[in-house]
Amino acid sequence: MSASASSASAAPDPAGPAEPPALPATFRPHRTRIVLLSVGAVMFAVIAGTGLVLERLSLGERISFVVTAAGFLFVLWLLARPKVVADEEGVTVVNFTRSRRLAWAEILRVNLRRGDPWVFLDLSDGTSLPALGIQPGIARQQAITDARALRALVEARSADPA
User: Fold this and answer.
1) What does the alpha-carbon distance between residue 148 and residue 161 come to, in Å, rounded to a whole number?
2) Are 152 and 20 within 8 A, CB to CB?
């Protein structure tokens, strides 16, 4: 099943045209986020706890355990950060380390094709922007629903720029 809005696609959308959701709307991979942050918290507790419990370690070694645990937690937090926020003025795409604000007119197409790791936004400047906030990893159906909702918003906002 594809949530692609490409002009080359001749197949009709089996779910029919999607109604745009109310704004503001936030799309993010909730299950992936829960898994990453849970694993990060457990890893932090285990690594930092181990460093604090071991009696033979010096203060510097204990601190290095805690700092290492915090580093792992930070990396997993970065991986859990992506989201796509749509509001009246446009879309904000938050990926791992960068955010980009787009006006509705800048987004030509929302693509989520079979095998894509996340949604891609085709932009008016000829580039494509990955939107990691909608990814089919462990919640494929939710990603398809979110991609359709974002596509409906883009189509509605492109047709009515008011």
Assistant:
1) 19
2) yes
